Amino acid sequence: MKFLTPEQKKFYDDNGYVVINVLSEEEKDELSTEYDRLFESKREYELEASWQGDWNTKKEKMEVKSIHGLQMHSSVFTHLLLNKKMLDACEDLMETPNILLHHTKAHTKPPGTGSPFPMHQDYHYFPFEKDSMIAVFISLDAADPDNGGLCVYPGSHKLGPQEDISTAPGYHYLNQDKFSIDKATPLTLERGQVVIFSYLLVHGSYNNTSDRVRRMFLIQLMSADDVPSKQVHLSDCQGMVLRGRCSSREADIKSRHRKYMEQEEKANKM
């Protein structure tokens, strides 16, 4: 074990998640400041990302502001991807020294109107053959059920993929009666705490009824030894090696620009 205690590793294996502390106060301050600066600078863009579908029948205004690929906007988030303590913990949980980036994103729930997220598994968005995918959830604010905090079904990662009943293309969620948010376990987090969880863990989050904002930054990671079951959810910097190596990565000189050539060819036909 490089970072976690044996007790923490067992808790993760049993429950599908673990809460840890890896960030210094200086790092928390830097992330918070840069996070707010980024969202403020992108106000002219469409950032609304509330979950669609028939899972929520409430009619009042709900909103979630979101930006993906934060490492493409600021080096502060690039540096975070290489945080040694964080990667040590991920290596302990993933049981591999070879860790790749899948994608990053941030969700902000405004006070009073922050939308809940239905109970779901991340698996349905990007299934992998060996289910190596994990999420690193960084809570930039103190979070609890009142301001839209995270909730989980401990041990649900052992159930495997559950039925996706979404009625909205591009969105996935489970049966909200079978996995009721009222019966989920709420996670009360301190500012800057990190939750690492399996992409098979059933989880969601509450609506923000408080006068406090709830900001989060999420990193999805995969093993270099795993492969996607479907070519979906392709994102900026996907496959970037954050630790170790990726022996399966192609290196043929003739195909080095293949993706970009295909994009140019498609654009020229339009």
TrEMBL record:
Its EC number is 1.14.11.18. GO terms for molecular function: phytanoyl-CoA dioxygenase activity. Belongs to the PhyH family. This is phytanoyl-CoA dioxygenase. The lineage of its organism: Eukaryota, Metazoa, Ecdysozoa, Arthropoda, Crustacea. Keywords: Dioxygenase, Oxidoreductase. It is an enzyme of class 1 (oxidoreductase). SUPFAM superfamilies: Clavaminate synthase-like. InterPro entries: PhyH (IPR047128), Phytyl_CoA_dOase-like (IPR008775).
